[in-house]
User: What shape does this take?
Amino acid sequence: MQERQGSRAMKNLNNLVKDVLIRWSLQQVTSAGVATVEVLDVCSGRGGDQMKFLQAPISTVRLCYNAVDIAEAQILEAQKRLRQRLPLEWLESCRFFIGDVTLLAPTLPDEPLPWQHIVSIQFALHYAFKSKASARSFLHNATGRLCGGGLLIITTVDSSKIGEFARQAAEKQEFVFKNELAKISFDEVSLPRCDLDSKVWLGLSIRPHR
Ligand SMILES: C[S@@+](CC[C@H](N)C(=O)[O-])C[C@H]1O[C@@H](n2cnc3c(N)ncnc32)[C@H](O)[C@@H]1O
Assistant: This one.
């Protein structure tokens, strides 16, 4: 119970940070006079952020929410949650895509995705850092339809902290780091291969625990 309090506090903090960032981005875009705001939620997961976008208190604009994730189950759950919470007519302005963003960009069957005013990548960019090439390709595909003057909002992990945690685990010949706020497992294959003095952490596979 006590152990979970830390991770719950982290989750609340993460949600607060995302909420502030999302509201700020919507305000920026709408104050520039955009009437229909297109948003692309990259690595959307189970749709934790869709309601943050759709319920931000801006009544004068129409919001088109687009979401892409590699995991079909996550997208199905996001759609289900949305159906439970939104009036039917709102759902028509939402699009969902399943795909690996390191490999391809979300595209409609016969045309490109409309230009996006906001591209949001929340707690997911680090998954693309298997190599420099996959990170570049991910960012290229995620932002390919971002319009001129559009906003890219990202939250991700602090790689220097992850590096520090990895070093501490490796020193103890363990593959888990744990403190009062977080528990992270490191992959037994990729951790020994990493340069522990590096400032750039590529290819280190981590699994955060909730
Ligand atoms: C930690 S979750 C974050 C979900 C959501 N953005 C949030 O903040 O609640 C990371 C998500 O990234 C997705 N993901 C990881 N690699 C991906 C990739 N290459 N392409 C698309 N989605 C990916 C996972 O399936 C997962 O749903």
In short: The mean pLDDT is 90. The chain has two domains: 2-155, 159-208. The beta strands are 36-42, 62-69, 94-98, 116-122, 146-155, 176-178, 183-186, 206-208. Residues 159-208 form one domain.
